[in-house]
Automatic annotation (TrEMBL):
Species whose genome carries this gene: Caenimonas terrae
Residue ranges constituting the HTH lysR-type domain according to the UniProt record: 1-59
Keyword tRNA processing: no
Protein name, UniProt field: LysR family transcriptional regulator
CDD domains in UniProt: PBP2_CrgA_like
KW Membrane (keyword) present: no
Family per record: Belongs to the LysR transcriptional regulatory family.
Alphabetized UniProt keyword annotations: DNA-binding, Transcription, Transcription regulation
InterPro entries, per the entry: LysR-type_TF_proteobact-type (IPR058163), LysR_HTH_N (IPR000847), LysR_subst-bd (IPR005119), WH-like_DNA-bd_sf (IPR036388), WH_DNA-bd_sf (IPR036390)
Length: 314
C-alpha cells in the first residue's frame, strides 16, 4: 500500500464530502478511493469514517487522525516545494569540484559573469586533484577527460584541446625563437613531471603531417608537478613550457606569452563536466555548464583571430 497516497485520499474524501467527489478530484476510480481508505483503516486498526447511505462522518479517531494528518501533509508539500525550487529556480549554491588548474583558469574567471546574469546563484568550489574524484558529492565536477568516473555519471565535453609550446616575449628576445623541434635542446625548458617519477623523453606531434611524431630527451632547467607553477615561471621569462592551449588563450591573446614551434603539439587533451545525475538536475547547474562550455570555446576560438604574431613569424 502507498501509505502517503492513502493519507491524501482520506483527506480528500473528508474535504470533498464523499468517495465519488474525491475520486473525481483526484482523477481516480471510485473503487480505488474506497480501497485506499479501507487499507488505511486496516493498517491503523481503527475505523476513521462512519459510512451510511446518506452521509459520511468522521469517527473520534478519524477526527484526531485528520487533524494531525493535515499538518503532516502540509509539511510534506512544503518540503516538496522547497526541493523543487532548487531544480526550477535560478538560485541557491552551486557546489563545484575541480583540480587546481581548472578551478583557477576555467571556473573562477566565469563566476563574475555568470552572477551578473543570475545574481541569486552563489558558488562553493572545492579544489582537489584526487585521481578518484567524489563526483556524487557535488553538483558539478570539472575534470580531465582522462579521469575515470563511475558508469552512472553523466559526462559532457567542455572542450577538446592540445598542449603547445609557449614562452614569454622577454625570453624569446634574449634566447631566440626555436624554428624546429631539435632547437629545444639548446633552450631552457620548463617541464611537468609526475610525482615520484623521473622525466621521460617528450613526444612531439605534427598534426599537419598525419601526426608525425618524434621523441626528444629535453633537458629541464625547472621541473614541477604543478601546471600553474610552470606557467608562472614561463610568464616571468624562465623558459619554454608546454601548456594546454585553452589555458593559454587569454595570455596568448594579450601577448603575455607567445606560442612557439607551431604546428607541433605535445598532447591532445580534453576537459569534461561530470554530473552525478541528469534527473532532477538543478537549473543553476544546467545553466552554468552551458555557460562554461560556451565561454571556454569562445575564448579558444577567438585566439586565432586576436593573438598577436610571434617573433620570427610564429
Amino acid at each position: 500500500m502507498d501509505r502517503l497516497q492513502s493519507m491524501r485520499v482520506f483527506q480528500a474524501v473528508v474535504d470533498e464530502g464523499g468517495f465519488a467527489a474525491a475520486a473525481r478530484k483526484l482523477d481516480l476510480a471510485p473503487a480505488v478511493v474506497t480501497r485506499l481508505v479501507t487499507d488505511l483503516e486496516q493498517h491503523l486498526g481503527v475505523r476513521l469514517l462512519q459510512r451510511t447511505t446518506r452521509r459520511l462522518s468522521l469517527t473520534d479517531a478519524g477526527q484526531a487522525y485528520l487533524a494531525r494528518l493535515r499538518s503532516i501533509l502540509g509539511d510534506i508539500d512544503e518540503a516538496h516545494g522547497a526541493a523543487q525550487s532548487h531544480t526550477h529556480q535560478m538560485a541557491g549554491t552551486l557546489r563545484i569540484l575541480a583540480p587546481p588548474v581548472a578551478a583557477a583558469h576555467m571556473v573562477a574567471p566565469l563566476v563574475a559573469g555568470f552572477r551578473r546574469l543570475h545574481p541569486g546563484v552563489t558558488f562553493d568550489i572545492d579544489v582537489d586533484d584526487s585521481p578518484h574524484p567524489a563526483v556524487h558529492e557535488y553538483d558539478l565536477a570539472v575534470l580531465s577527460g582522462a579521469v575515470q568516473v563511475d558508469a552512472d555519471v553523466i559526462v559532457r565535453t567542455i572542450i577538446l584541446s592540445q598542449a603547445v609550446f609557449c614562452a614569454s616575449p622577454a625570453y624569446l628576445r634574449r634566447n631566440g625563437t626555436p624554428k624546429q623541434p631539435q632547437d629545444l635542446l639548446q633552450h631552457q625548458c620548463l617541464r611537468l613531471r609526475t610525482r615520484g617519477a623521473r622525466l621521460r623523453p617528450m613526444t612531439l606531434i605534427d598534426p599537419s603531417r598525419d601526426d608525425l611524431a618524434i621523441e626528444l630527451d629535453l633537458p629541464a632547467v625547472m621541473t614541477a608537478n604543478h601546471t600553474d607553477t610552470l606557467l608562472r615561471a614561463a610568464l616571468d621569462g624562465a623558459g619554454i613550457s608546454s601548456q594546454p592551449v585553452d589555458l593559454l588563450a587569454p595570455l596568448l591573446k594579450t601577448g603575455q606569452l607567445r606560442r612557439v614551434l607551431a604546428p607541433w603539439i605535445t598532447n591532445r587533451l580534453s576537459m569534461v563536466a561530470a554530473l552525478p545525475s541528469r534527473k532532477f538536475m538543478p537549473l543553476r547547474t544546467r545553466a552554468f555548464v552551458d555557460y562554461l562550455v560556451e565561454q571556454t570555446r569562445l575564448a579558444v576560438a577567438g585566439l586565432g583571430r586576436n593573438a598577436p604574431p610571434a617573433p620570427g613569424g610564429e
